[in-house]
Amino acid sequence: MQGPNTGACLFENGNLVAMVEEERFTRVKSASEAFPSKSIQFCLKKAKVTLNDVSVVATSWDHDFYPVKMDQFMGGLEGRELDPLADPSESIIHNKLTPAMALSKIKIGLRKIAPTAEPIIKWYPHHKCHAASVYYLSGFEESAVLVMDGSGENQSTTTWFGKDGELSLQSQWLLPNSMGWFYSALTEWLGFNAYSGEGKVMGLAAYGKASADIAQKLRKVCDVGEHGNYQVDPTYIYFGERSYSKKFTDKLVELLGEPRVPESELSDYHINVAYETQKLLEDVASRITKRLMQETGTTNLCVSGGVAMNCKMNGLLSHLECVSDIFINPASHDSGTAMGAALLAHKEIVGDLPANRLEHAYYGPSFSDEDIEPILKHCQLKYEKVDNIAAECARLLAEDNIIGWFQGASEFGARALGARSILANPTNKDMKDIVNARVKYREGFRPFAPSMIEEVKDKYMESPKDSPFMILAYQFKDEYKAEFPSVVHVDGSVRPQTVSKKHHPLYWNLINEFGEITGHPIIINTSFNVRGEPIVNNPLDAVRCFFSTGMNVLAIGSFIIKKEGVDA
Q1: DSSP state at residue 555
Q2: pLDDT value at 2 more than 90
Q3: How many CB atoms sit inside 10 A of residue 555's CB?
Q4: Is residue 4 within 8 Å of 62, Cβ to Cβ?
Q5: How does strand 403-406 pair with strand 420-424?
Q6: What residues pair up with 248 in beta bridges, in sequence order?
Q7: pLDDT band at 82 (very low <50, low <70, confident <90, very high)
Q8: Helices (H) and strands (E) in the chain, counts
């Protein structure tokens, strides 16, 4: 409930039943610090239970650490006296996280849902929840686990070893040594918003070139030693005057120069800073991982934390010689810790957990044709009902129409995975620019990801692993790069979703039908939203987004809506 990406999930006997993020209901991106009441109500409805049937509610912050232990820790950090903002801001945040405040917020939130419900309330350390959210859902009997984010309590990077259902802490990096906050500081310096613009930096980095001068400067901010033993100098990020941003100090401006004004032109220097920032992150993560795999003796790797949303880094880790298999939760940011907290509570109270691998993310709200059609009628829309929505949309995609695709239960996590997606033809050389400008209203340099049926991943990509959650980057094979200009990034990489017929047969059929027409079962897939808004959640959200953008077709349930100019 503290920080961005709040959400809720429900497990029954150790098995995931429902999972959704609060932003989908509130329509406020990230829904920071919002009590996930609407998410909880959805989970209960999907499971066909009431809050009185729930035995335990778990959350992913160690409230016993606040405020005394955290204040003592922060007070002991060297250089903290240089920060004029430290005392008031920290005391306010830390007091909000005390056990008494946490219990009050949770109980009030729950009683607004069910006044008589009194489930057991438990909380667990933030990083352990991140680790649990991947290890216990990976299907691995044993695995190394890397957690890297901004911070959880006083931890910023931790490594774990999971074996026989137990998680043991291997090593930790404490604040101010945060790779998440380092990357966020550079994100803000580059003119993007921290906690949402990091993906833009990752995408921009591919356009950059190595610069020894910039690399040397960044190493002053974050020094990297042997085995990834990194140190962040807090005087560039936390401690000191902050005239330009809360995320970095004026000392960083003295080092790198004036920060970029948001929405202004990107210079070669900006682009090269992005390149070296991404390179430094990958260097740290790969060094830590190599040591961790050697220490634990396993070849399985799980990665979690907000930094694990960096698919370029994840792809690099998956290709390390010491890694044979990798698992990353589609909600590796903070909403995913809800799953970790629930699983830790189950293990503490019940005992052993089922050895399940999370194979799909479709645990959110769904709507039948009977739910959808009254909304289309209410909006006075012209629509048609078709017998084979996949075949019809494959034809429309091949004709270069841009389709809003609203089908089945929604996916959780930051990536659209074929339930709430905008789809387009990847073989059209102009499609990336068209969708960025006319539909997503975002920067032109940002790439789009391909969805492909899982059966062809080895045909098109270099040594790929299954990637159902669009959270790994791989190199596209040279012989196909020219044929897919709208999904292959400037560095030759793609961020694929490999689609399983078992878990999403309708979406698989659509892509397969498109392949029958074009010869390539690959389509553009981006999230069904515009910049700054959450992914659409219900049919009315979909209709609003469709008519406020340059999409041509809306495929919602069995119904198709076409804008003027689309051929019948």
Answers
A1: E
A2: no
A3: 24
A4: no
A5: antiparallel
A6: 245
A7: low
A8: 20, 21
Check pLDDT > 90 for residue 566.
no
Give the pLDDT confidence score for residue 444 in this predicted structure.
86
Which residue's entry shows tokens 């692993």?
465
As a residue count, the chain comes to 568
- The span from the first CA to the last CA of the chain, in angstroms, equals 48
Sheet with 420-424, edge to edge strand ranges: 384-385, 559-562, 553-556, 403-406, 420-424, 522-527, 449-453, 497-499
Residue 289: φ, ψ to 5°: -65, -45
Q: Which has more pLDDT, 10 or 30?
A: 10
Distance, in Å, from the CA atom of 387 to the CA atom of 488, rounded to the nearest integer, reads: 33
The angle formed by the CA atoms of residues 410, 416 and 419, to the nearest 5 degrees, is 40
pLDDT of residue 112: 95
The maximal CA–CA distance of the chain, rounded, in angstroms, is 69
pLDDT category at 519 given cuts 50, 70, 90 is very high
CB atoms within 10 A of CB 303: 28
The mean per-residue pLDDT over the stretch 85-108 comes to 75
Tokens representing 262? 């948001």
Main-chain dihedrals φ then ψ at residue 500, nearest 5 degrees: -95, 130
Q: Give the angle 199-342-138 at the CA atoms, nearest 5°.
A: 60
Token pair of 90 as six digits: 């920290």
CA-wise closest residue to 16 among 293, 502, 254, 362:
362
Q: Where are the alpha helices (DSSP H) in 249-380?
A: 250-256, 268-296, 311-318, 337-349, 369-378
Assign 104 to helix, strand or coil. helix
For the residues 522-542, what does the mean pLDDT come to?
Answer: 96
Each residue's pLDDT tens digit, 292-303: 999 999 999 999
pLDDT for the residue numbered 86: 54
Sign of CA dihedral 126, 127, 129, 130: positive
Report the amino acid identity of residue 183.
Answer: Y
Q: What are the φ/ψ torsions at residue 202 (nearest 5 degrees)?
A: -60, -45
Minimum mean pLDDT among 61-75, 89-103, 321-335, 554-568: which range?
89-103
- pLDDT in the model for residue 87: 47
Measured torsion, CA atoms of residues 277, 279, 281, 282, in degrees rounded to the nearest 10: 160
Q: How far is CA 392 from the centre of its chain?
A: 31
**Predicted local distance difference test score (pLDDT) of residue 531:** 87
List of E strands, 81-186: 120-123, 142-152, 155-163, 166-174
Q: Which of 144, 170, 90 is nearest to 327 (CA)?
A: 144
Q: Are 553 and 560 in contact (CB under 8 A)?
A: yes
Distance from CA of residue 323 to its chain's centroid? 22
Distance in angstroms (rounded) separating the CA atoms of residues 130 and 145? 9
Q: Which two tokens stand for residue 469?
A: 């959650």
Q: How far apart are CA 40 and CA 35, in angstroms?
A: 9
Three-state SS across 206-270? CCCCCCHHHHHHHHHHEEECHHHCEEECHHHCCCCCCCCECCECHHHHHHHCCCCCCCCCCCHHH
What are the backbone dihedrals phi and psi of residue 501, each rounded to the nearest 5 degrees, phi first? -65, -30
For the chain, what is the radius of gyration of the CA atoms?
23
